[in-house]
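Hey, can you fold this one?
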Amino acid sequence: QVQLVESGGGLVQAGGSLRLSCAASGRTFSSYAMGWFRQAPGKEREFVAAISYRGSSTSYADSVKGRFTISRDNAKNTVYLQMNNLKPEDTAVYYCAMYQTSWIRGSRWSYSDLGSWGQGTQVTVSS
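Sure. Predicted structure:
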């Protein structure tokens, strides 16, 4: 069983930046791909970014390409999401998740691909 704890969310003005962190414990973090997802009120959860187990492969949703960067530090069991040039449409609860595989399939995903989820952290971008 793995525990994932997100942090770093908050309120920011449009054009601003935030860095989300997700700390993992209870499982071999470095063996699994990690991802960030988000869910806005009244909408389905959507893929944001993913990174392979060693960080050599990443994938992003079209809506965040060029603005968000996913990275990981396997020594710290932590995955990060650097979010720049934030827009009001980025407002959502952001969740990190651990894949059940080492590699990612680009932006394609299904709930069965993910083994564990964090509790989520709220990101609010004001216009």
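The longest strand covers residues 18-25. Let me know if you want another pass with a different chain boundary.
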